[in-house]
Predict the structure.
Amino acid sequence: MPPNASRRRLLPFLALAMTVTLAPGLAAASASAAPRQDTTATDPLDRFTHQKPHWRRCDADTPARLRCATIKVPLDYRSPGGTAIDLAISRIKAGEGAKRRGVLLSNPGGPGGPGLDLPLALAKDMPKAVTDRYDLIGFDPRGIGRSTPVHCGLAEAERQWPRHYLPFGESVRTARSVADKCRAKAGSTLAHITTRNTARDMDVLRAVLGERKISYFGVSYGTALGAVYTQLFPGRADRFVLDSAVDPARMWRKMFQMWAPEVEPAFRRWSRWTAAHDGAYRLGKTPAEVRATFWGLVKRADRDPIVVGTEKVTGSDIRLILRREFFTVRSGAELVALLRDAAAGKPVPEFPTAPEEGDNGVSALWAVVCGDNAWPRDPQTYYRDSVRDAARHPLVGDFVSNIAPCAFWDRPAEPATTVDNRVGTLILQNEWDPQTPLTAARSMHRALKGSRLVTVDEGEGHGVAYGMAPGPANRCAQDTATAYLVTGVLPGKDVTCRAVPGRKLTKPASPAFG
């Protein structure tokens, strides 16, 4: 293993955000035939919407009830007679035919997250009242997994960047290299791997399944995808549940930048909680003492990196790692106490690490976040913003405003989608979510004027219901979602649920949107 390889895996800045382990490995079957151009069709999408998928067992190791197929969708919906690409899909049929309402499509987050196995996870965590009524439908979004995956051929350091600090000049060179490699390896496909086109794929899938409307459960990035679908196809959206919502007006650079101001109240809350539990953690008897302990460790590590397990951790690493942990007070206190012990030379375990990201996941992530909306082109814009935001928000302001490959990306093929409609949706949101803050969910609520917002007061972590939460689901929020999926009736007004006191999180907070 090269030096610092495991440290580069620590808690990525932009990475796959998934609270359920999804490893499809599925040998998806093809549709009955590759769609042919029908010159007599009045609708240019007819050759796609009239496909008949051949459902087969996904894999010898996959439960037989999960069936898979592959259909075709246009690479470019502006020219549907051109190149067609694969869309890998999966299905678990509704458990009770007499009660069946339709299909429930799903997305686990990302961007870059595969979704073929997601119906298995949802079938385990959704109540029978839901699974009796819906075929659970999964799919790998275009460019991901089995759906004509994009590959940029990135080096390990480029796949892991920007998970740790780099001087600005080196960040610029790395961002340019990622963009150049993606353009060279996947240039003809890259511009079409967007949220807007994935939403269009969902509507082709709706037609292929023979449904007039779809219902939907999307998490994190999946909330952005669901919202875009409601904007493009409002009359075809049935019952939509959006868990841990993105701000649709901030996709994508501003969404990352909001992490800097949002972590500050979480940091203050963490310092109060930790001071109140000084007997357990010994980090300070007052909030001010706790904060001083943290910043003292950051300064010490900037001068002389702290050895944590087998790795050396800088002050910049500490700020990046702890940003998300401050939203979960117990986890934050445990990690800062570990750092304190490591700085004193005591033996400590390794920091928690995120899984290695493969080339496809990282390539698809950049394709979506760079292709959905144009980013600034001048590197000096990012430099000025980083300097400004480091002063305004010293925890992570410099990181979240830093340069990204999108600065060197080709211009998006289409304008961004403005979400502004009255489609009925239900939004679930923890108050203390490190990846998609409550502020973002409120913005989604305003954009979806027919929505209701369920807020988990003092809820911590990324994900709320149906196995997406980092700990046990909040029963109040999940029951509200179940009632909506079963009856189609939204709450008469927004709902506030209470977090379970002392709930122990069993999964790490998600490292990115998810």
About this structure: The two ends are 28 Å apart (CA to CA). The longest strand covers residues 84-92. The first helix runs from residue 46 to 49. Residues 54 and 513 are 33 Å apart (CA to CA).
